Amino acid sequence: MSKIVFITGATSGFGRAAARRFAADGWSLVLTGRRMERLQELQDDLGRQVPVHIAALDVRDAEAVQQVVAELPEGFRQVHALINNAGLALAPQAAQQVDLADWHTMIDTNIKGLVNVTHALLPTLIASGRGASIVNLGSVAGQWPYPGSHVYGASKAFVQQFSYNLRCDLQGTGVRVTDIAPGMAETEFTLVRTKGDQAASDRLYRGTEPLSAEDIAEQIFYVASLPEHININRLEVMPTRQAWSPFAVDRD
Ligand SMILES: NC(=O)c1ccc[n+]([C@@H]2O[C@H](COP(=O)([O-])OP(=O)(O)OC[C@H]3O[C@@H](n4cnc5c(N)ncnc54)[C@H](OP(=O)(O)O)[C@@H]3O)[C@@H](O)[C@H]2O)c1
């Protein structure tokens, strides 16, 4: 029996690359996201390799999350790894210029959405027991402040602390929890953040070597397939060409 991985945000970036990585190792896939046509493409492609179940899902909708989990077909129910990847940043401008609605969208997706899916799948993961995994996609922004990060960074700090706290409560169940915190990675992330500004996205990644979706998918797969007595608590990954800046000082 192949193991089953449940991935949120499988339609793009890390989630889509993770679907391919787990499929390459023979895992069965439950792939979710809002864009059904992309899920369908993945099922058509990866379904030739491994069993694939797809479900259109907005993680902000707690009832829909419960329904998707309750209606998992035979052969996809005993989830062994949950990849809580769905998320987004919005509004790269300063906090004082941001629409409140953008803050709410980040909180609803990155915090409430992640909590919705975790809550719905915890009983299944605990039933899977030793070696089961929850892999949460945090960010370097959850640890390190930078201008324009405001609620996005704060939401990823939540992901880090929630991951640690989950570990305390799951002690003895065999379920592992990891916060993967990537730095700059080229996906659709900046296109979403800038509300479709492809030139801004290209500018951000130009002339350097960001992480790729496949780089992070490899890390996600790594932590979920380690020997079952090993738990990576937090894995922070940056491109070699990215580092921190000095403190900003306001001068006369
Ligand atoms: N790229 C980076 O530099 C970076 C760095 C650190 C952390 N991260 C984090 O990594 C995760 C994946 O980001 P990515 O870089 O792969 O970005 P991406 O290419 O934009 O992918 C984001 C995924 O999240 C899904 N998603 C967004 N809102 C959703 C919702 N309400 N319900 C369900 N799915 C939703 C999207 O699917 P649909 O639109 O089809 O729903 C998409 O599949 C995010 O949590 C992000 O915060 C990214």
Automatic annotation (TrEMBL):
Under what name is this protein listed? SDR family NAD(P)-dependent oxidoreductase
Xref: PANTHER family: ALCOHOL DEHYDROGENASE
Provenance organism: Geopseudomonas aromaticivorans
The record's family statement is: Belongs to the short-chain dehydrogenases/reductases (SDR) family.
* Signal sequence residues: none
Where do the Ketoreductase domain residues begin and end? 3-187
Keyword match Flavoprotein: no
UniProt key word Calcium: no
One Pfam family in the UniProt entry: adh_short
Top-level taxon: Bacteria
What UniProt keywords apply to this chain's record, in alphabetical order?
A: Oxidoreductase
